[in-house]
Amino acid sequence: MSRIRQLRLDGIRNLAAATLDLHPRCTLISGDNGSGKTALLEALYLLGRGKSFRENQTRHLINHGKPHLRLIARIERDGREHLLGIEKSAREHRLRLDGENLKTLSGLAALTPNQILNSDNFALIDQGPEHRRRYLDYGLYYHNPAFLPDWQRYNYALKNRNAALRQNWRAADLAPWNHILGETGSRIDAYRRAYLAALEQALNTYHAELGGLDPIHIHYQRGWTGDDLAAQLTANNERDSQLKHTRDGIHRADIRFHADGRDIAHHYSRGQQKTLICALILAQTRLITADNGSHPVILIDDIAAELDRRRQHMLLNFLADSGAQLYITHIDGDLPLPDALADHQHLHIDAGHITEKP
User: Fold this and answer.
1) Is 37 annotated as a binding residue?
2) pLDDT, tens digit (0-9, with 9 covering 90-100), for 123-170
3) What is the pLDDT of residues 163-199, one digit of tens each?
């Protein structure tokens, strides 16, 4: 299992430089709105993803007046301690693990899988398909080791086919890219279907236990209509040449969540959607643990949002049972912590300054 044992941070958002020795099971993070609670979660999220859950542009993460942000973490994985360093400026990103340069973000994901539960998760239900593909493929990375190399090869071919379309290449010149996209895309489609079958089963277990009334069906749209993706790409060469991009393939896939034959985006209340979102995070956490042999670190921003106290207690019980390391932000006040989390750490943030409370 993965545990973040220590975090040194400098230059992130409004947070003052700090060295934090972290609890192996549960850390509560309190403070007023705007104090820096979410910024601390961003720092922890960066350790496993290499980017923020809030901003795509690094410059917004860096404390005003600082040239870069720097994170140094001691991470325990399966009884062995690793030293991870991340430095980001507006122009350069550097990752180092145990003294060696890391060239890809997959090294972070392999060491410290993580999950975030916050208000942005509603995008899984009511925003564009890219949010759902990102959720799907993050879990699939752990579920099937063949996924990542196929996904990388697919995206390389997609980038080159789109460039060729913009340059008005002949149909014959598109053939190699069509072949690679068809070959890798068909395999990834099969990986996704297998993963979604396992995910739907785990999802319904948690959804029912959190009080959800309806069985949930995950409706998968793979991104093209024919049987043979390569043949469909070839048939649509002329159309895509006019559009200057590739319209068919796994990069156009989507998943929707249905209950009683209806899309829950249009028929569930905000509270019901939050229950489903919690079940989605718990289900993927269970699968990652089974597939990766390591509990993801779970970050929860404002646990009380859209969850009544009873469901907060139920969620915290499931999280405690998961064995994951938890980081939970909240406004000062009581949380319905289960007995299993009675031993925990409490960090308080005041205007960016982090202190540990007894």
Assistant:
1) yes
2) 999 999 999 999 999 999 999 999 999 999 999 999 999 999 999 989
3) 999 999 898 999 999 999 999 999 999 999 999 999 9
User: 317 a known binding residue?
Assistant: no
- Asked whether residue 33 is marked as a ligand-binding residue, the answer is yes
Domain count, the chain: 1
How far apart CA 305 and CA 277 sit, in angstroms, is 12
Q: Is 329 annotated as a binding residue?
A: no
How far is Cα of residue 243 from the mean position of the Cα atoms in its chain?
Answer: 31
The 10 Å Cβ neighbour count of residue 246 is 22
**Residue 34 known to bind ligand:** yes
Question: Residue 74 and residue 285: Cα distance in Å, rounded?
Answer: 22
Q: Specify whether the CB–CB gap between 47 and 73 falls below 8 A.
A: yes
Q: Is residue 213 part of a domain?
A: yes
Asked if residue 106 belongs to a domain, the reply is no
Are the C-beta atoms of residues 194 and 139 closer than 8 Å to each other?
A: no
The response to whether 35 counts as a known ligand-binding position is yes
Task: Reply yes or no on whether the pLDDT at 302 is more than 80.
Answer: yes
Residue 337 covered by a domain: no
- Percentage of residues of the chain with pLDDT beyond 90: 86
DSSP SS3 for 305: coil
Residue 257 lies inside a defined structural domain of this protein: yes
Full domain range(s) for residue 164: 125-293
* Contact of 295 with 325, CB cutoff 8 Å: yes
Task: Compute the distance between CA of residue 31 and CA of residue 350 in angstroms, rounded to an integer.
Answer: 6
Beta bridge partners of 71: 9, 86
At position 350, the amino acid (one-letter code) is D
CATH number at residue 205: 1.20.1050.90
